[in-house]
Amino acid sequence: MRKGAFHFILGLFCCVACKPEYSNHCNPKENALKERVNFKVGVAVDHDLLGFDLAYEELVQSQFNSLSPENAMKASYIHPASDQFDWYLADRLVNFAENHGMRFHGHTLIWHQQLPEWIENFAGDREQWRALLEQHIKTIVNRYKGRVAAWDVVNEAFVEDGSLRNSIWYQHLGASYIRLAFEYAHEADPDALLFYNDYNLAQNPLKRKAVIRYLEEMKLAGVPIDGIGCQFHINIHFPEVSDLNKCMEEVCQAGFKLHISELDIALNPFSRSMPQPKEADLKRQADRYLAVFKAFDRQPNLLKYGITMWGLSDADSWIPSYFNREDYPLLFDGNYQAKAAYCKLIESL
Ligand code: G3I
Question: In 3D, which of 278, 197, 264 has the Cα closest to residue 234?
Fold first, then answer.
């Protein structure tokens, strides 16, 4: 057989028999992401999977040492009626973290989304709204005192022009709700770290500077604020690594602990048809994950609170359903197989 023909057939065979297009070459069963860095690496867990899907659970506890509840501690789940708290889901996740020696990061006490109807429709005056805010925060933080290491106390209170969001909390309490929320959380658990959490802080310097300035002024006034969560819902094209780096540096230079709190790196921000991820995009995603981890690792040790992935596998990411598109933003594919991004971190950190 002529040499060319042999190689052609060999190549044909490899195309058919080789691993999927975006293959990986490292084994999570022999590696642990949490052991590659000197800071906490977390994952936001789905309460419908943890405790029910053993492969999911195994990967969560073997790769990560911090847990965030993707939804279980949001008001619509944990405080479904004015006189009713539902602890089942949150207890299950906190117990799992404790049983596996994992830190627990509480998400989120005060947000304008995922509110139960009774709060959306609450018709109280300013004092009654203040009392509602206090009872919500203190009841939850008290229950997990000493078990939840930190809280996203207020989530997404700013809009893109740097002003405060006209949320239901702002409408009924003005800007004071932010200060009150941190003060109530601190009163309930003085040892818990308290974070402000928001998105687009790397992409939007105007918003970032407004957030940092506002929180600096509150901290100077004695309000107990320990850190800033930069969510980092980013993609393979945007923002520049230099912008990610600048965001981290400015948060740390202001003296706040830094939490990359909801990291995912979308491959398909323009919502094109993408039934399978492209090899080149997966490699770009891998490089970007490594850039985020390395930039974070360059920050001062005492301020490195951690990096939390916003989901475990591409199949349970919020992005495809929220944007109604195919996307592959996380470290593991829909079959919990390591992607190039996971392998890049394991091999390069
Ligand atoms: O629990 C119900 C289930 O009973 C029902 O069958 C199902 C279908 O309707 O919906 C389920 O609720 C969904 C929930 O996720 C749990 O899966 C909600 O519809 C859905 O809106 C909710 O989405 C969450 C989203 O926040 C809400 O805005 C995502 O999972 C969650 O990843 C996302 O996370 C937020 C952070 O908390 C804050 N930062 C932004 C980030 C992305 O939006």
Answer: 264
